[in-house]
């Protein structure tokens, strides 16, 4: 029996791949790694109360083994995930030298000073989250050069000045969050799919610039207003009153007509409930019917204990996955709201992002981005190809990506999130075979003061940790066990639980011999 030996070899390999010859291309003629120099400059500008940066060493040639640093398979630094680490001080302009960086997460620290304009040099950047700090000064216009940026969060800082038009015009943003700062002046047209600018009391509409940002109106205009007669004011008041009455009457009439038609002419159409959650898009049931071909069986991507997932096409040609939860009476409003809020809180490259939701009296639906390569389980079990769709390099990349996603849920979310059903079928693969942890339907939020939560046992047989099965207490260890089973599935290609066909072995993957 070599199962433990194989797992040990694979674990050693996971540690070993952090050091790659490709990083040698970053060396200067004097043998200095440019990325190491940039990271050390960042360290020197920060105050590290909890010593999380102690492992960052100037004498190291390869930073890929450093805490909170993620690298590509070629050995370049592609992610800095430093959220909620108690860091203070300032952010060094040397950040702009990490030219391969795709993800920068520094939220919920105490960093201050200006946001370095050098971030605008990071042409590969996809996710930038500096929220929940004490950054001040203006938003750098240079951020508008990041045309590939998908997420930009600068909320809950002390930023001032106007919203730069180059930033507002970033059309590729899925979400822009500038809320709760000290921004002022006219608000430009924002092209992001979703955005929030709430909590900036000095912002005003670009169409109404009077008293905008504290700028006084011209003196002659003020004097003219003072000369307005009481008679004119009375006339204006009457006109406004009549207009409001007329508009209200029309609105009531329209609402009555809509109710009549929906009640007696189109009674088969589901009625959407009033339900809003943050920046998430709310879809009507009719929109999703059209997108999925009335939930045609031809568009089914998969199904599980909580519902069926359909492939859908939005009017803007975006391809989505629509999860239609089964048995809405069981999936009540509270459970549905918990899942939606939970997914909305967790934003990470290796976590499945939620586009939006739909809620009616009889339906609960969630809308996700479409994952063209399916799940890890699909790829491991695909026997219809001449060669495996997942080579060892991809399997390694998937293992590391899934680990980063789970680490974010456990250590960087507040409150933390326990997935409780980590398995190959819930690890999805995007167009680049990047691992994306999905299906938070079984997850539970934990307050940071809690070490475990006791609930009814949820999960999939073959993936459930023994102590969770016997006690009903789930913790981060529950997910770590599931991740270990996922590693064995990646190594062997076998299912976690197999009923056995013909001469095949039965039982869980831990019970089998691999020779």
SSE map:
Layout: H1 3-16, H2 34-45, E1 46-48, E2 69-71, E3 77-81, E4 87-90, E5 103-105, E6 110-114, E7 127-129, E8 134-138, E9 151-153, E10 158-161, H3 165-168, E11 175-177, E12 182-187, E13 194-196, E14 202-205, H4 219-226, H5 230-265, E15 281-282, H6 285-291, E16 300-304, E17 307-313, E18 319-325, H7 333-345, E19 356-359, E20 364-369, H8 376-381, H9 392-412, E21 416-418, E22 427-429, E23 435-437, E24 444-446, E25 453-454, H10 466-471, E26 473-474, H11 476-492, E27 497-498, E28 507-508
Parallel strand pairs: 3-5, 4-6, 5-7, 6-8, 7-9, 8-10, 9-11, 10-12, 11-13, 12-14, 15-19
Antiparallel strand pairs: 1-4, 2-3, 16-17, 17-18, 18-20, 19-20, 21-24, 22-23, 25-26, 27-28
Helix pairs in contact: 9-11
Overview of this structure, please?
The chain is α/β, with parallel strands linked by helices. It folds into four domains: 3-214, Alpha-Beta Horseshoe (Leucine-rich repeat, LRR (right-handed beta-alpha superhelix)), CATH 3.80.10.10; 235-268; 281-369, 2-Layer Sandwich (Phosphorylase Kinase, domain 1); 376-511, Orthogonal Bundle (Transferase(Phosphotransferase), domain 1), CATH 1.10.510.10. It has helices at 3-16, 34-45, 165-168, 219-226, 230-265, 285-291, 333-345, 376-381, 392-412, 466-471, 476-492, and strands at 46-48, 69-71, 77-81, 87-90, 103-105, 110-114, 127-129, 134-138, 151-153, 158-161, 175-177, 182-187, 194-196, 202-205, 281-282, 300-304, 307-313, 319-325, 356-359, 364-369, 416-418, 427-429, 435-437, 444-446, 453-454, 473-474, 497-498, 507-508. The strands form seven sheets. It has a seven-stranded mixed beta sheet with strand order 1-4-6-8-10-12-14. The protein has a seven-stranded mixed beta sheet with strand order 2-3-5-7-9-11-13, with no helix packed on it. A hairpin with a 4-residue loop joins strand 19 (356-359) and strand 20 (364-369). Helix 9 (392-412) runs antiparallel to helix 11. The longest helix has 36 residues, at 230-265. It is globular. Mean pLDDT is 75; it is low at 11-25, 27-31, 206-210, 213-221, 223-229, 262-276, 445-457 and 501-505.
